[in-house]
Amino acid sequence: MQKVEELIRKIEGLRDPEARAAAVELMQALMEFNGAGLDRLMEIVSETGEAGDRIFDEFARDELVSNLLLLYGLHPVPVETRVTQALEKVRPYLDSHGGSVELLGVEAGVVRLRLQGSCKTCPSSSATLKLAIEEAIYREAPDVSAVEAEGVAEQPVPAPSNGFVQIGKRPTSVAAALSST
User: Fold this and answer.
1) Nearest to 145 by CA among 170, 175, 112
2) Taking each helix axis from N to C terminus, what angle separates 125-140 and 79-96, rounded to the nearest 10 degrees?
3) Who contacts 173 (Cβ-Cβ below 8 Å, separation ≥6)?
4) Cα(first)–Cα(last) distance of the chain, in Å?
5) pLDDT band for position 111 (cuts 50, 70, 90)
6) Residues 48-95: tens digit of each pLDDT
7) How far is CA 6 from the centre of its chain?
8) 10: number of CA atoms within 13 Å, CB side?
9) What's the rounded Cα separation, in Å, for the pair 64 and 11?
């Protein structure tokens, strides 16, 4: 991806607007072609029944394949399930620090949580817990755009009127920008 991003920066820096437009159009056409091919591969795998289910599980576990499928909106595991799995992985850490988290929902790429408790012995416990939760969620569901939480013990900024505090916003990647064009 680093090489792709370098090339995109070069294309964006082209002085000739026609060359820049042609290069962007070529990238978009390749993305559409690859996306259609991957979509068809997913259809073929799904037609194999139980064997296909095992293959989809392997796709979801493989970081490279998983991220590729996310890029094209083809990930076999729903985002809410991946967020739940992330929270289950971080739950023992939260428990060890006297904290807990409840998933309230996922809408339009925004994860809404309720944080409960915190470690009373360390002053930066809320920040530490939030960071652990964010990292776990973004690792399992990199397509999440933001994580918001209510019940944050140490709030450095006032809560929005909906009662939620944003604890992390995922920067938009070049690849995500390309896939939305």
Assistant:
1) 170
2) 150
3) 1
4) 18
5) very high
6) 999 999 999 999 889 889 889 998 989 999 999 999 999 999 999 888
7) 22
8) 8
9) 25
Residue spans of alpha helices (H) in the chain: 2-12, 17-46, 50-61, 63-71, 79-96, 125-140, 174-179
Encoded tokens for 51: 């064997």
Q: What whole-number distance in Å separates Cα of residue 83 and Cα of residue 86?
A: 5
| Residue 100 in this model has a pLDDT that exceeds 60 | yes
pLDDT at 119 over 60: no
What are the CB-based long-range contacts (under 8 Å, 24+) for 38-46?
38/68, 38/69, 38/72, 38/74, 39/72, 39/74, 42/69, 42/74, 42/76
Could you give the 3-state DSSP secondary structure of residue 78? coil
178: amino acid identity, one letter: L
Beta carbons of 176 and 138 less than 8 angstroms apart: no
CB 128 within 8 Å of CB 154:
no
The SS3 assignment for 21 reads helix
Report how far Cα 50 is from the mean position of its chain's Cα atoms. Answer: 27
Strand partners, 165: 149
For the record, the structure tokens of 157 come out as: 């900024």
75 in Cβ contact with 68 (< 8 Å): no
